Amino acid sequence: MAIVINSETKLTYEDYVLLPEDGKIHEIIDGEHCMTPAPDTYHQTLSRRIQYQLYEQIEERGLGFVFDAPTDVQLSEIDIVQPDLLVILANRKSMIAPKKIIGPPDLIVEILSESTGSKDRRLKRDLYQKAGVPEYWLVDPESQQVEVYRLRGGLYDSAGSYGEEIPYPGVEGVRVDLSRVW
Q1: Beta-bridge mates of residue 27
Q2: Distance separating alpha carbons of residues 84 and 152, to the nearest angstrom
Q3: Residue 82 near residue 73 (C-beta atoms within 8 A)
Q4: CA atoms within 13 Å, Cβ hemisphere of 141
Q5: Which end of the chain is more exposed for a tag (fewer CB within 10 A), N or C?
Q6: Residue-wise pLDDT tens digits, 70-84
Q7: What are the chain's domains?
Q8: Where are the alpha helices (DSSP H) in 35-105?
Q9: Within 13 Å and on the Cβ side, how many CA atoms surround 28?
Q10: What are the phi and psi torsion angles at 20 (to 5°)?
């Protein structure tokens, strides 16, 4: 159940599993409940197209696992999120539990929307950095660009903005062809 840190009540995974299954996205960040509406169809289309390419190049080759939302990712006792897409490489498959991922995935992909843009750019970026997620992609449907952040020395460093193809250095030769996404 909830824990108290410095006289402030923080929600935990035990609280999270009690939240309603109502078609909305529920997350707990720093012990606080965050909720956003279900994504629109274009968002889901982009997610599926990126997932398909990652699946073909990573999962079908036995190099790892690709998950889409809603997949619970427990980054800490008080941080539970549902990224749009995530990758767990094969050598870290022990973090895949029956109901959730426990710990930082190798790659997290978030697709920006009007309701999630500022949260994905600031709050989640800081959370993923703190949790040690090695690579974070922010997909911007409006500009048709993907901002890539890579963890270096515990901090995210911009690895550039991509509009044609994104290399994923976590696995040799893996690339997402953005002309097949937009």
Answers
A1: 34
A2: 23
A3: yes
A4: 18
A5: N
A6: 999 999 999 999 999
A7: 38-180 (3.90.1570.10)
A8: 41-54
A9: 25
A10: -70, 150
